[in-house]
Structures are given as C-alpha cells and as structure tokens.
Design goal:
Blueprint: E1 4-12, H1 17-32, E2 37-44, E3 51-58, H2 61-68, H3 71-80, E4 84-92
Protein name: ABM domain-containing protein
Domain ABM: 4-92
Pfam family, one: ABM
C-alpha cells in the first residue's frame, strides 16, 4: 500500500463563509470513521477566511476513491455547490 495525501481547498463566495464552514465541519466526523482514513483535518486560512483547507492522509488510492464515492461526500458537494467560488483538490505522494 502507498499512502496518499490530499490537500482540498474550497473558497466560499462572499457571504457564504459560515454556511460552507458548517457544511465542511459536518463531514469531518463521518470521514474520520471511513476505512483507510489516517488524517482528515479542516483548516481555515487566517489571512483569507473565505478559504477552507482539508488536509488528508489515506492508506491507499483505493481508500481515497471509496471516500470520493461516499454518501456524505455526495451530499456535501450537492449542498455547497452554490456557495463555492473555487475548489481545488491536489493528490500527493510523499517523497521525503
């Protein structure tokens, strides 16, 4: 197994910061219980409070793929679709 790291960034549209924060907080608990989840932490950018960042670690690419297909992630994406100005997901492999 090769551990996978993910940085997922969402920038809220102006005025939707708190809705996005609450929705993002709501998926932390269920995701941490997923098989293969090693780390799933939500952060808010200090200098740009509309920017929310998930820092994730997964046991494998397969665990990450299962997470992406989970019901709570599908519901989250649907709920926040109109609140997000920009989203970016980076999947990383550790080299040092």
């Amino acid at each position: 197994m090769t551990e996978i790291a993910v940085v997922a960034i969402s920038v809220a549209k102006p005025g939707y910061e708190e809705q996005l924060r609450e929705a993002a907080e709501g998926i932390v608990g269920p995701t941490r219980k997923e098989q293969g989840a090693l780390q799933y932490d939500l952060h808010r950018d200090v200098q740009e409070p509309r920017r929310f960042v998930f820092v994730e670690r997964w046991e494998s690419q397969e665990a990450l793929a299962a997470h992406a297909k989970s019901a709570h992630i599908a519901a989250y994406k649907k709920a926040v679709a109109d609140w997000v100005e920009h989203a970016e997901i980076r999947v990383l492999s550790k080299i040092a």
